Amino acid sequence: MPDSSVHRSPISRARLVSPVTPATLSLTPSAPAIALMTDLATEVPHVVAPERPIDDALRDMIAFGVRLLLVVRDSEVIGIITSYDIMGERPLQFLQDPFRGERTHRHADVRVEDVMTRIDDTRPLRHRWVSEATAGEVAALFRARSSDTHLLVVEEGRYPGEVVVRGIFSRTRLERQLGAPPR
Q: Distance between CA atoms of 124 and 181, rounded to whole angstroms?
């Protein structure tokens, strides 16, 4: 009996499979919201240290193919930084702030922590809500929060009062998967 686990005919050419990734799937507004979330329980998050120069963080984003990095110090998420934060007005506002002290004088010296959004300013979603919500409901949240490009998802940790960042929603990914801007 021939071994069916081995391809027997000669191969002259072979292509790589085109994986169906969550970013390429088309969803309807009634689809489960969880299908749109980058689940950090199954995907390794992209992180950056708060002391890192913003230009290095932007290069990391380009290399990883993402537009958001979690800002982590001592294994604790202290904020988020997006490509918009780096390429927008925040670095210039920071450099022009008369109360910023004497440390930074050039764009190349601006650090991630100088322009990031602090974790307590992110207004995260509860994982429990996300697990029951629809893609349309998340789209409605993005409409209500017009300046947000990402939404964090948190859940209770092992210990009382502990919060764990569980996932991330991307406005761009949501628009791509729903086939239209969430307006």
A: 21
